[in-house]
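Title: [Solved] GntR family transcriptional regulator 3D structure

Original question kept below for reference.
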Amino acid sequence: MNSDRISGSKSKRDWVAESLRARIGDGSYAEGARLPTEEVLAEEFEISRNTVRDAMKVLQNEGLVVIRHGSGTYVRNNQPIVHLATSVHGYVDSERFQRGYAPHMRAAGYDQIVETVEIALDTASGARAVRLGIDPELPIAQRQVVKRICDRFVEGQLWQRQVSHFPATIAMNTELSIPQHIERGTREVLRELGYERTWSYDLVSARMPSPQERQSFGTPPGLPLIVQDRIAYSGEQPISDIQTVMPADRHQLLYAEGEVDERVLVLGSDVTLIER
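Solution (posted by the thread starter after getting help):
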């Protein structure tokens, strides 16, 4: 019999990973807890330390544990923060930093919330050009967009990256093209420029991060990013495409409609990514 397998086609690695996964799921290993050492687990399951190490990598790729070299393996904190995709009972949506995102994060118990702003001029192409009503066949000079790149840091860790795209014909030589915070928000600036937002829609997807994004966000292997694109219009004219990228284990998007009680924020926060 193959010594790497215990029965049927299940390998020892998968058997150990399944056992540890169940213990994490039922709370035997609490969030933030340090798992037993490789030596202890190898003795318990009567397997080699290499097999234990392989099982830990399986759980790491699933986003269940964090392996800290020289320290040990820890259960991830799997309680995400609510990202308000729509305003709720006096709470401004998280698209707006000063009035929405930062106060909500402070209410969740975080103190150090910082946003940096960079500006870039880009050329719209592909899906983004279509969303902004720009003909992708036009010359480059006529497909310019202003990008506001806002990195949101929580306790020193990059938490979200929000990149707003505005047609240059609207945003060039306005506050939107200056690398500074806009206290009243870009939506209000657009309104003052004569482009009041009358409707919008969201596209929400998930993708794996690039190596650079993994490093920037500090995410473990196997953890996807949530990507929220909000395309806004003034009448029939597209005025912005705001893309927010966020690690999936730290966020859950909350959409609400009608007269919603603020208690939904508590209900939405009182969850973990591991169902018990």
